[in-house]
UniProtKB/TrEMBL annotation:
It comes from Roseococcus suduntuyensis. The modification N6-(pyridoxal phosphate)lysine is found at K237. The lineage of its organism: Bacteria, Pseudomonadati, Pseudomonadota, Alphaproteobacteria, Acetobacterales. SUPFAM superfamilies: PLP-dependent transferases (SSF53383). Pfam families: Pyridoxal_deC (PF00282). This is Glutamate/tyrosine decarboxylase-like PLP-dependent enzyme.
Length: 408
């Protein structure tokens, strides 16, 4: 087992060791990954780093010590609330990521409802983070099959609601297929039964508004829809900020009390927090603030335009390859599969992997999943050239099959 070195080493040597360690990773900077990263250009990369470093060690738990961070967090939250058509009196919390935002939403829904055996009713395309948060929180999850368009089947969800249901969920969009659920109908159902409706816009929060502006068909999904109680929106996804930045937004600031912990049961007096984290990195807030202020509406529109261009090129290119089929969709997520028994998609995945592309294997249907970000506009043609070669190789039967379900 490795132990601490007896004597410390100098930074130049350690820096080289870190660079050597990452040399064999897949290259996100060359657009080789369609999962895990969001990249625009070197100018934004430098801005992210410098903004983060400005507050690199400040602790955002200590907002009395760092009123600057409280102000920046407030401004980030307000910009997001206004983007998502929140009414006066809405509020939010800055979290470490989509998982924490969703955890807090379910905690708040549970505390608000106060049911003995709580359950949530969600479309089966919702992120597994709901199941993970529900596991932490002692909540039963009722996953309901989606309809033929792979969107929430609201009648079937209504049938799954009972006395112990505390919340409904819709995604905007969901991660497996990129579809946006029927949020308006879910809002009506939520209001009928006085349920918390959480919209998971971890992927779409900072993209949907701009896709709409570009004329894409984006069904209503945000606080403009009556009945939407909370929204999770990740600034570290299409908000283009470095990792560790998400928001849980609530329609009414009073709802925040349901995910607020407070206790005085120790020697140090009162400890209170709205988030699951205690110590929180100030750099994440500063970088999110700087990215949002730097990109502004025009910058986010440009990102959305690049994503749509990449999507169009890749989807058309894949569809033109005999034996491959692209599932219907118009968001940043593309799923394709094989329609030809002589062309196992797992072999195509292996052949792409061997060409340096990190491949996400979709389990249902057996296929390949891509989450497009702005950089992909620059590598779309390269991707297609390699895919055509990978398909030819897969037909020859040389490559072993990459197992399905290797999403992460
Ligand atoms: C739709 C959706 N919700 C939630 C999450 C979880 O977010 P995080 O990985 O930031 O915790 C993801 C992550 O990909 C997602 O795609």
């Amino acid at each position: 087992m490795r132990a601490l070195p007896p004597q410390g080493q100098d930074w130049p040597e350690l820096k080289q060791a870190l660079l050597d360690a990452k040399a064999r990773d897949y290259s996100w900077k060359r657009g080789r990954m369609a999962v895990f990263f969001y990249y625009l250009d070197e100018a934004l990369e430098r801005l992210q780093q410098e903004a983060y470093m400005t507050f690199w060690t400040e602790n955002n738990l200590g907002q009395r010590a760092f009123p600057s961070l409280a102000k920046l967090e407030g401004e980030v939250t307000e910009m997001a609330l206004s983007l998502m058509h929140a009414p006066e009196g809405a509020a939010g919390s800055f979290t470490s990521g989509g998982s924490e935002s969703i955890f807090l939403a379910l905690l708040a829904a549970r505390e608000r409802a106060g049911k003995a055996n709580p359950n949530i009713v969600i479309p089966d395309t919702a992120h597994l983070t709901f199941d993970r948060a529900a596991w932490y929180l002692g909540i039963e999850v009722r996953r309901v099959a989606v309809d033929r368009e792979r969107r929430s089947d609201v009648m079937a969800m209504a049938a799954a609601v009972d006395y112990d249901t505390i919340a409904l969920v819709g995604s905007a969009p969901n991660y497996p297929f990129g579809g946006i659920d029927r949020i308006e109908a879910l809002g009506q159902l939520a209001q009928q039964h006085d349920l918390w409706l959480h919209v998971d816009a971890c992927v779409g929060g900072f993209l949907n508004p701009f896709l709409s502006k570009l004329g894409a068909d984006v069904p209503a999904w945000d606080f403009a829809v009556p009945g939407v109680t909370s929204i999770s929106a990740d600034i570290h996804k299409h908000g283009m900020a470095p990792k560790g930045a998400s928001l849980l937004l609530v329609r009414d600031a009073a709802l925040k009390q349901h995910h607020r912990f407070e206790s005085s049961a120790w020697a140090r007096g009162t400890y209170a927090a709205y988030t699951a984290q205690g110590t929180r990195p100030g750099g994440a807030v500063a970088a999110a603030w700087a990215v949002m202020m730097h990109l502004g509406e025009a910058g986010y529109l440009d990102c959305a335009r690049r994503i749509m261009a990449a999507r169009a090129t890749i989807a058309a290119g894949v569809a033109a390859i005999p034996g491959l089929e692209v599932l219907p969709g118009n968001h940043a997520i593309i799923v394709y599969r094989s329609t030809d028994k002589a062309l196992p998609i797992g072999r195509v995945a292996t052949a792409m992997d061997q060409r340096g592309w990190l491949v996400s294997r979709q389990a249902e249907p057996d296929g390949i999943h891509l989450h497009i970000n702005p950089l992909h506009a620059e590598v779309a043609e390269e991707y297609l050239t390699d895919l055509r070669a990978a398909v030819a190789e897969a037909r020859e039967g040389a490559a072993p099959e990459m197992a399905a379900g290797r999403a992460y």
